[in-house]
Amino acid sequence: MTNLAAQRTTPMLNKVPEVTIYFWIIKILATTVGETGADFMSVTLNLGLGGTSMLMAILLAAVLAMQIRAQRYVPWIYWFTTVLVSVVGTLITDSMVDILGVSLPAATAGFAVALTATFAAWYASERTLSIHSIHTRRRELFYWAAILFTFALGTAAGDLTAEGLGLGYAPSALAFGALISLVTMAYYSLGANAILTFWIAYILTRPLGASLGDLLSQPTTNGGIGLGTVLTSIMFIAIIGSLVVWLSLGGRDPDLGRTTAER
Protein backbone atom coordinates (compact mmCIF):
# COMPACT_ATOMS: atom_id res chain seq x y z
CA MET A 1 0.00 0.00 0.00
CA THR A 2 2.86 2.35 0.86
CA ASN A 3 4.55 1.74 -2.50
CA LEU A 4 1.27 2.36 -4.34
CA ALA A 5 0.75 5.64 -2.51
CA ALA A 6 4.30 6.69 -3.31
CA GLN A 7 3.76 5.97 -7.00
CA ARG A 8 0.65 8.13 -7.01
CA THR A 9 2.38 11.09 -5.39
CA THR A 10 5.80 10.91 -7.07
CA PRO A 11 5.79 13.20 -10.11
CA MET A 12 6.74 11.59 -13.40
CA LEU A 13 9.15 13.08 -15.88
CA ASN A 14 7.57 14.07 -19.16
CA LYS A 15 6.65 10.88 -21.03
CA VAL A 16 6.90 12.25 -24.58
CA PRO A 17 10.12 13.10 -26.46
CA GLU A 18 11.07 16.62 -27.40
CA VAL A 19 9.77 17.60 -30.84
CA THR A 20 13.00 17.57 -32.83
CA ILE A 21 13.86 16.53 -36.37
CA TYR A 22 14.40 12.99 -35.00
CA PHE A 23 10.85 12.97 -33.66
CA TRP A 24 9.39 13.73 -37.08
CA ILE A 25 11.68 11.34 -38.95
CA ILE A 26 10.80 8.41 -36.70
CA LYS A 27 7.13 9.39 -36.68
CA ILE A 28 6.88 9.35 -40.48
CA LEU A 29 8.81 6.07 -40.66
CA ALA A 30 6.49 4.59 -38.02
CA THR A 31 3.41 5.58 -39.99
CA THR A 32 4.82 3.89 -43.08
CA VAL A 33 5.52 0.70 -41.10
CA GLY A 34 1.97 0.85 -39.79
CA GLU A 35 0.67 0.67 -43.34
CA THR A 36 3.07 -1.95 -44.73
CA GLY A 37 3.24 -3.98 -41.52
CA ALA A 38 -0.53 -4.38 -41.35
CA ASP A 39 -0.65 -5.43 -45.00
CA PHE A 40 2.25 -7.86 -44.51
CA MET A 41 0.63 -9.69 -41.60
CA SER A 42 -2.93 -9.74 -42.88
CA VAL A 43 -2.17 -10.53 -46.54
CA THR A 44 1.36 -11.91 -46.95
CA LEU A 45 1.24 -14.05 -43.78
CA ASN A 46 -2.43 -14.79 -44.48
CA LEU A 47 -3.52 -14.01 -40.92
CA GLY A 48 -6.47 -12.01 -42.18
CA LEU A 49 -7.67 -8.73 -40.76
CA GLY A 50 -9.38 -10.39 -37.81
CA GLY A 51 -6.41 -12.51 -36.74
CA THR A 52 -3.91 -9.73 -37.28
CA SER A 53 -6.07 -7.23 -35.39
CA MET A 54 -6.39 -9.53 -32.38
CA LEU A 55 -2.67 -10.34 -32.29
CA MET A 56 -1.56 -6.72 -32.60
CA ALA A 57 -4.14 -5.48 -30.08
CA ILE A 58 -2.77 -7.91 -27.47
CA LEU A 59 0.81 -6.88 -28.22
CA LEU A 60 -0.11 -3.19 -28.08
CA ALA A 61 -1.86 -3.65 -24.71
CA ALA A 62 1.27 -5.27 -23.27
CA VAL A 63 3.69 -2.62 -24.57
CA LEU A 64 1.35 0.25 -23.71
CA ALA A 65 1.24 -1.04 -20.12
CA MET A 66 5.04 -0.83 -20.05
CA GLN A 67 4.91 2.71 -21.41
CA ILE A 68 2.36 3.82 -18.82
CA ARG A 69 4.25 2.21 -15.95
CA ALA A 70 7.49 3.96 -16.90
CA GLN A 71 8.23 7.11 -14.92
CA ARG A 72 9.99 8.93 -17.73
CA TYR A 73 10.47 8.94 -21.48
CA VAL A 74 12.27 5.74 -22.52
CA PRO A 75 13.00 5.90 -26.28
CA TRP A 76 12.60 2.25 -27.21
CA ILE A 77 9.39 1.78 -25.20
CA TYR A 78 7.82 5.00 -26.48
CA TRP A 79 8.61 4.35 -30.15
CA PHE A 80 7.70 0.65 -29.98
CA THR A 81 4.33 1.76 -28.61
CA THR A 82 4.00 4.32 -31.42
CA VAL A 83 4.73 1.75 -34.13
CA LEU A 84 2.16 -0.66 -32.65
CA VAL A 85 -0.45 2.11 -32.37
CA SER A 86 0.25 2.87 -36.03
CA VAL A 87 -0.35 -0.76 -37.01
CA VAL A 88 -3.49 -1.08 -34.87
CA GLY A 89 -4.86 2.24 -36.15
CA THR A 90 -4.39 1.01 -39.70
CA LEU A 91 -6.10 -2.29 -38.90
CA ILE A 92 -9.07 -0.53 -37.31
CA THR A 93 -9.64 1.50 -40.46
CA ASP A 94 -9.09 -1.46 -42.78
CA SER A 95 -11.50 -3.60 -40.74
CA MET A 96 -14.19 -0.93 -40.83
CA VAL A 97 -13.85 -0.46 -44.58
CA ASP A 98 -13.16 -4.03 -45.76
CA ILE A 99 -15.17 -6.05 -43.25
CA LEU A 100 -17.95 -3.75 -42.07
CA GLY A 101 -18.35 -2.03 -45.43
CA VAL A 102 -17.97 1.54 -44.12
CA SER A 103 -17.10 3.93 -46.94
CA LEU A 104 -13.80 5.80 -46.85
CA PRO A 105 -15.51 9.24 -46.63
CA ALA A 106 -17.66 8.02 -43.71
CA ALA A 107 -14.65 6.46 -41.97
CA THR A 108 -12.62 9.65 -42.42
CA ALA A 109 -15.45 11.79 -41.05
CA GLY A 110 -16.12 9.40 -38.17
CA PHE A 111 -12.51 9.31 -37.01
CA ALA A 112 -12.30 13.10 -37.34
CA VAL A 113 -15.28 13.41 -34.99
CA ALA A 114 -13.76 10.86 -32.57
CA LEU A 115 -10.43 12.72 -32.54
CA THR A 116 -12.16 16.06 -32.00
CA ALA A 117 -14.15 14.60 -29.10
CA THR A 118 -10.93 13.22 -27.57
CA PHE A 119 -9.25 16.62 -27.80
CA ALA A 120 -12.34 18.28 -26.30
CA ALA A 121 -12.43 15.87 -23.36
CA TRP A 122 -8.67 16.19 -22.87
CA TYR A 123 -8.82 20.00 -22.81
CA ALA A 124 -11.88 20.08 -20.57
CA SER A 125 -10.09 17.88 -18.07
CA GLU A 126 -6.54 19.24 -18.24
CA ARG A 127 -6.92 22.73 -19.77
CA THR A 128 -4.06 22.00 -22.17
CA LEU A 129 -3.28 19.81 -25.17
CA SER A 130 0.47 20.34 -24.93
CA ILE A 131 2.62 17.24 -25.29
CA HIS A 132 5.23 18.96 -23.12
CA SER A 133 3.15 18.27 -20.02
CA ILE A 134 2.48 14.54 -20.30
CA HIS A 135 3.48 13.80 -16.72
CA THR A 136 0.30 12.31 -15.22
CA ARG A 137 -1.45 9.02 -15.98
CA ARG A 138 -4.65 10.76 -17.09
CA ARG A 139 -2.86 13.05 -19.53
CA GLU A 140 -0.94 10.12 -20.93
CA LEU A 141 -4.13 8.14 -21.50
CA PHE A 142 -5.66 11.10 -23.32
CA TYR A 143 -2.46 11.40 -25.36
CA TRP A 144 -2.44 7.79 -26.54
CA ALA A 145 -6.16 7.85 -27.30
CA ALA A 146 -5.56 10.90 -29.49
CA ILE A 147 -2.58 9.21 -31.16
CA LEU A 148 -4.67 6.13 -31.98
CA PHE A 149 -7.36 8.23 -33.62
CA THR A 150 -4.79 10.26 -35.60
CA PHE A 151 -3.46 7.02 -37.07
CA ALA A 152 -6.92 5.67 -37.87
CA LEU A 153 -7.96 9.02 -39.35
CA GLY A 154 -4.76 9.32 -41.35
CA THR A 155 -5.16 5.85 -42.79
CA ALA A 156 -8.69 6.60 -43.92
CA ALA A 157 -7.74 10.01 -45.33
CA GLY A 158 -4.70 8.62 -47.15
CA ASP A 159 -6.70 5.79 -48.73
CA LEU A 160 -9.48 8.23 -49.60
CA THR A 161 -7.18 10.57 -51.53
CA ALA A 162 -4.99 7.91 -53.14
CA GLU A 163 -7.64 5.31 -53.96
CA GLY A 164 -11.11 6.74 -53.36
CA LEU A 165 -10.44 9.96 -55.25
CA GLY A 166 -8.07 8.26 -57.69
CA LEU A 167 -5.11 10.58 -57.15
CA GLY A 168 -2.60 7.77 -56.87
CA TYR A 169 0.03 7.16 -54.20
CA ALA A 170 2.73 9.57 -55.35
CA PRO A 171 0.42 12.59 -55.90
CA SER A 172 -1.30 11.85 -52.60
CA ALA A 173 2.06 11.81 -50.77
CA LEU A 174 3.08 15.06 -52.47
CA ALA A 175 -0.23 16.68 -51.52
CA PHE A 176 0.08 15.80 -47.85
CA GLY A 177 3.75 16.77 -47.88
CA ALA A 178 2.78 20.18 -49.26
CA LEU A 179 0.17 20.62 -46.52
CA ILE A 180 2.77 19.80 -43.87
CA SER A 181 5.10 22.39 -45.44
CA LEU A 182 2.36 25.01 -45.22
CA VAL A 183 1.77 24.19 -41.54
CA THR A 184 5.52 24.45 -40.90
CA MET A 185 5.65 27.83 -42.61
CA ALA A 186 2.66 29.02 -40.58
CA TYR A 187 4.47 28.12 -37.37
CA TYR A 188 7.94 29.50 -38.17
CA SER A 189 7.02 32.46 -40.36
CA LEU A 190 3.61 33.56 -39.13
CA GLY A 191 3.87 32.65 -35.46
CA ALA A 192 0.92 30.26 -35.52
CA ASN A 193 0.01 28.50 -32.27
CA ALA A 194 2.56 25.80 -31.46
CA ILE A 195 0.09 23.28 -30.04
CA LEU A 196 -2.36 23.68 -32.92
CA THR A 197 0.31 23.39 -35.63
CA PHE A 198 1.89 20.39 -33.91
CA TRP A 199 -1.33 18.40 -33.91
CA ILE A 200 -2.22 19.37 -37.47
CA ALA A 201 1.23 18.27 -38.64
CA TYR A 202 0.99 15.09 -36.57
CA ILE A 203 -2.33 14.20 -38.17
CA LEU A 204 -1.04 14.93 -41.68
CA THR A 205 2.08 12.78 -41.29
CA ARG A 206 -0.14 9.69 -41.05
CA PRO A 207 -1.71 9.92 -44.51
CA LEU A 208 1.71 10.98 -45.81
CA GLY A 209 3.22 7.81 -44.35
CA ALA A 210 0.33 5.68 -45.58
CA SER A 211 0.73 7.01 -49.11
CA LEU A 212 4.51 6.52 -49.01
CA GLY A 213 4.09 2.99 -47.69
CA ASP A 214 1.69 2.06 -50.47
CA LEU A 215 3.85 3.82 -53.07
CA LEU A 216 6.90 1.77 -52.08
CA SER A 217 5.21 -1.57 -51.45
CA GLN A 218 2.44 -1.83 -54.04
CA PRO A 219 3.17 -3.42 -57.43
CA THR A 220 3.81 -1.18 -60.41
CA THR A 221 0.50 -2.26 -61.96
CA ASN A 222 -1.24 -0.57 -59.01
CA GLY A 223 0.80 2.59 -59.23
CA GLY A 224 3.51 1.60 -56.74
CA ILE A 225 7.25 1.02 -56.99
CA GLY A 226 6.92 -2.68 -56.23
CA LEU A 227 9.30 -3.21 -53.31
CA GLY A 228 6.69 -5.30 -51.51
CA THR A 229 5.50 -5.13 -47.92
CA VAL A 230 8.30 -7.34 -46.58
CA LEU A 231 11.24 -5.33 -47.92
CA THR A 232 9.58 -1.98 -47.19
CA SER A 233 8.73 -2.98 -43.60
CA ILE A 234 12.21 -4.37 -42.91
CA MET A 235 13.90 -1.31 -44.37
CA PHE A 236 11.90 1.18 -42.32
CA ILE A 237 12.01 -0.88 -39.10
CA ALA A 238 15.80 -1.07 -39.43
CA ILE A 239 16.04 2.71 -39.73
CA ILE A 240 13.68 3.26 -36.80
CA GLY A 241 15.61 0.74 -34.70
CA SER A 242 18.94 2.39 -35.49
CA LEU A 243 17.67 5.85 -34.55
CA VAL A 244 16.02 4.62 -31.35
CA VAL A 245 19.19 2.75 -30.28
CA TRP A 246 21.20 5.88 -30.95
CA LEU A 247 18.83 7.98 -28.85
CA SER A 248 18.82 5.39 -26.08
CA LEU A 249 22.62 5.41 -25.94
CA GLY A 250 22.67 9.14 -25.34
CA GLY A 251 22.03 10.60 -28.76
CA ARG A 252 21.21 14.27 -28.90
CA ASP A 253 17.55 14.01 -28.02
CA PRO A 254 17.00 17.10 -25.79
CA ASP A 255 14.17 15.48 -23.83
CA LEU A 256 16.06 12.48 -22.47
CA GLY A 257 16.19 12.75 -18.70
CA ARG A 258 14.74 16.25 -18.47
CA THR A 259 11.72 17.35 -16.50
CA THR A 260 8.93 19.57 -17.75
CA ALA A 261 10.03 22.34 -15.38
CA GLU A 262 13.53 22.35 -16.91
CA ARG A 263 12.06 23.15 -20.30
From TrEMBL:
> What is the organism field in this record?
Muricoccus vinaceus
One Pfam annotation reads: DUF347
Transmembrane stretches, start-end? 21-41, 47-66, 73-93, 99-120, 141-162, 174-204, 225-249
Q: Which InterPro entries does the annotation name?
A: DUF347
Key word Electron transport present in the record?
A: no
- Top-rank taxon of the source lineage equals Bacteria
Is Nucleotide-binding there in the keyword field? no
The protein, known as: Membrane-anchored protein
